[in-house]
Specification:
With 91 residues, this protein is an all-alpha fold. The protein has two helices and no strands. Helix 1 (2-55) packs antiparallel against helix 2 (60-89). 0% of the residues are buried.
Length: 91
């Protein structure tokens, strides 16, 4: 009977750890996707700034909007990275 309890406890522990690892993997994938979105948005921002310079036009509203989106995404990224770091220590 004791061996059965040990096996059940071990199986439960492994299942729980596997679930945590799966969640961390999903979180890391989401982080990578968000980093890619941020990279693309920064490239778009650079294009807008260059076009504004080239044409001598004022695109400050577009620039402000993109910068605000970047700030929100950066905050989300930091939160996700903290969560991933915290979860890593719990495994």
């Amino acid at each position: 009977m004791e061996k059965r309890n040990i096996l059940e406890n071990s199986a439960y522990f492994l299942a729980r750890q596997s679930g945590r690892m799966l969640n961390i993997g999903k979180l890391k994938l989401n982080i990578a996707n968000l980093e890619n979105e941020i990279y693309n948005l920064k490239a778009e921002l650079g294009d807008i700034i260059y076009q504004s310079f080239k044409e001598g036009s004022d695109c400050s509203e577009q620039i402000s909007g993109l910068c605000a989106r970047l700030a929100q995404m950066d905050k989300r990224l930091q939160d996700m990275q903290k969560e991933a770091g915290g979860n890593k220590n719990n495994i």
